[in-house]
Design brief:
Length: 384
């Protein structure tokens, strides 16, 4: 039986996530604001949690209704047969997202949803289920846009960007789902070498290896919220979890370097935790001392922006990156993300694409640089 679902994501990654869902076999895939809706069965729900690289969570829609005030929300929620989803001793929590002139306080909406569920059981059993904010057995999500309400169950639990392979981190590590989205946006699927010359704790390197080998990112997680649901099907989930038929060989190499020995030690721990040591080469090396790239290679990097991580000479760092690209990376493509246009300007190259992305709360530009040897018009003519 098919039902409606919504996969949440980050600003700028909606189209990448939609493509992932189509490739997984989801139906009725539609773009939304920082989300993609789709339909599928229980197997698709499990598959989405295991395989999606750019989703933060997958919600299963259980009811949609219109409401003009919090009391309307209460009445509509109370009408639902909650025994389909939980028992009187099931712990639960409410997450609310509100974009509405009518509903000003998302916390008050959450309280009314909680009251409705508690009263449903109180009237039947004279007992209320307990609210538990930390690791509840059932997470209920209410989304209100104007007066349109969508009630869902969170099938993921902890955000899907928390893969489970990260055992150590440097300052301001890149979100794993954003890192995967940045790589998928380039079109790279493992057909060449990959380089991150400012790799920090190694997130881009690990996500690149998982993409190249087509390993589902959810394999590293300890659990998903749907495993606690009434209708959890252990057999379907285990079959999906143990299915490695889509994994593929990777014939190239992934290179990571950083000026910080501590960052490389951290990256090495994370790479080892992910079981990817044979595919990823790590070394302590300042940008200025990196050797010229001989084979076809994609460079993707997240340099310091001067916001959370500072560099003594932030402009000099971006200028050094530009020098490396112009003299040691010709014939290849690089992608650089930063929240500072002034820094990106110091690279000294004209980007062929600028994609707006959010890294945490920071508005960033993700810029593509095509590094040609010789004159640009000859390079463009060759590509035609």
């Amino acid at each position: 039986m098919e039902f409606e679902m919504v996969a949440k994501t980050f600003k700028g990654l909606e189209e990448i996530l939609a493509t992932e869902l189509v490739e997984l076999g989801a139906n009725n895939v539609q773009l939304q604001r920082r989300a993609v809706s789709f339909t599928g069965n229980l197997e698709m729900l499990y598959k989405a949690n295991l395989h999606l690289r750019t989703a933060s969570r997958v919600l299963k829609t259980i009811a949609t209704f219109k409401a003009e005030n919090p009391d309307d929300v209460y009445e509509q929620v109370k009408k639902i047969d909650w025994e389909k989803f939980m028992k009187v001793d099931t712990t639960f929590a409410i997450d609310s997202t509100v974009y509405s002139e009518v509903f000003r306080h998302s916390k008050f909406v959450a309280y009314r949803v909680k009251d409705a569920i508690a009263d449903f059981f109180m009237e039947k059993y004279d007992k209320r289920p307990s609210v538990r904010l930390d690791n509840p057995q059932l997470m209920v999500n209410i989304h209100i846009a104007h007066n349109q309400c969508t009630l869902s169950l969170d099938s993921s639990g902890e955000s899907l960007h928390k893969r489970g392979y990260r055992v150590s981190q440097t300052e301001a590590p890149l979100n794993e789902a954003l890192a995967a989205g940045m790589i998928l946006m380039t079109g790279w699927r493992g057909g060449s070498d990959f380089l991150d010359p400012m790799c920090g704790s190694g997130t881009l390197l690990i996500e690149a290896a998982l993409i190249a080998l087509n390993i589902p990112p959810g394999l590293f997680r300890n659990s998903f919220a749907f495993e606690k649901w009434n209708d959890f099907n252990e057999e379907i989930f285990q079959n999906l979890y143990n299915d490695d038929s889509l994994e593929r060989p990777f014939e190239h190499k992934i290179y990571g370097s950083d000026i910080s020995a501590r960052a490389i030690a951290t990256a090495r721990q994370n790479v080892q935790s992910a079981g990817l040591t044979k595919y990823i080469d790590l070394k302590v090396c300042p940008l200025q001392e990196l050797e010229a790239v001989k084979d076809t290679c994609l460079l993707v990097t997240n340099p310091p922006y001067g916001e959370r991580i500072t560099s003594p000479d932030i402009f000099g760092l971006y200028a050094a990156l530009g020098t490396f690209l112009k003299h040691k990376f010709t014939g290849n493509t690089a992608w650089v993300i930063s929240s500072h246009e002034d820094c990106l300007f110091k690279i000294g190259l004209k980007p062929s694409q600028k994609v707006p992305l959010l890294n945490g709360a920071l508005e960033c530009l993700y810029c593509q640089y095509e590094i040609f040897s010789g004159k640009r018009n000859e390079f463009v003519a060759q590509r035609r």
